[in-house]
Each structure stands twice: as C-alpha cells, then as structure tokens.
C-alpha cells in the first residue's frame, strides 16, 4: 500500500528461513537484469549490537548478485535521523513494541517530537540505556501522493512483542487524518 501511495512499483518475494539467503540473492539478480545496480538499506550501526553482522550479510548478498550495497544512515545517530524524518514531513506510527518496556499502549502512537522526548527520558532514566524495542510503519510523507489511513487494527501479543495487526487500511487524500479503530 505504501508503494501505491507513492506511485512506485513494489517487488515482493516469498521465501522460507532455510532458503532466505539464496532467495534474496536470486531476487537481487533479477533486479539487476532489469537495470538495477544498487540497493539502499536503512540500517543504522549506533545502538544495534548485531549491526556489524547484518551489514556483512547485506554486503555479502549484494556482492554475490553484482549489486552495490549502500547504507547511507550507517554512522548517523538515531535521534538525528528521527528528527530529520519528522522535520521532512514524514509520519509514522508504532506497529510493534516489546511487552516489558513499552507495552501495548504504544501501538498506534504517532512518531513525533513528543514521543521522541518520552523516549529520551526513558533512555536517561534507564540503568541499562534501553528504552525498549519498537518498529514503525510510515503512513505519509513528502513522497506520498496519498496518505495511508488505518481503518481497523487489533493489538496482538506474540511472544515478547505486541503487534498492531492491521485489518483494514486505505488510501485517502492527505487532509483526512482520522483515528485508528483498535479492537480489544
């Protein structure tokens, strides 16, 4: 839906864990045959203990397929990236959060300056510097011709993570910013 909102094509490929690496290489090779010469990855090193291992994996699969790997955010600070993201006019919501530190109440929250300030306070007050695990979903931005509107979603707990299971979502004109209907 994000690709449709931006008016760009999307490439999706199904795979399984045992075949993931080879399927990824095959997908990159098929993109190379269509004229794609590089992949851009949004990985950030700072604050991610597994980042170096993941970067090696990205560079390895790209190299195996003859595609350049670009990681433009690699050395940037997370706070600076998030501030620039917000300043540029992007909008994202929390769609996954750990149950122990952030919890279910964070699902559906908008990533804005208020939320960033709250995360900074959590970091400052945390003995181990961990604010909690979360993932976001971009619903609008300067590249979007229309915004995504989540019409219905349910919180779902899977293991240690709460997820926002999006049941209905549509594209709307950018002025329509209605609220998310959360199930129980």
UniProtKB/TrEMBL annotation:
Q: Which PANTHER family does the entry link to?
A: DIPHTHINE--AMMONIA LIGASE, DOMAIN OF UNKNOWN FUNCTION 71 DUF71 -CONTAINING PROTEIN
GO BP of this protein: protein histidyl modification to diphthamide
Protein's name according to its UniProt entry: Diphthamide synthase domain-containing protein
UniProt organism field: marine sediment metagenome
Q: Name one Pfam family in it.
A: Diphthami_syn_2
What residue stretches are annotated with the Diphthamide synthase domain?
A: 2-168
Q: What GO molecular-function term can you cite, just one?
A: diphthine-ammonia ligase activity
UniProt-listed InterPro entries = Diphthami_syn_dom, DPH6/MJ0570, Rossmann-like_a/b/a_fold
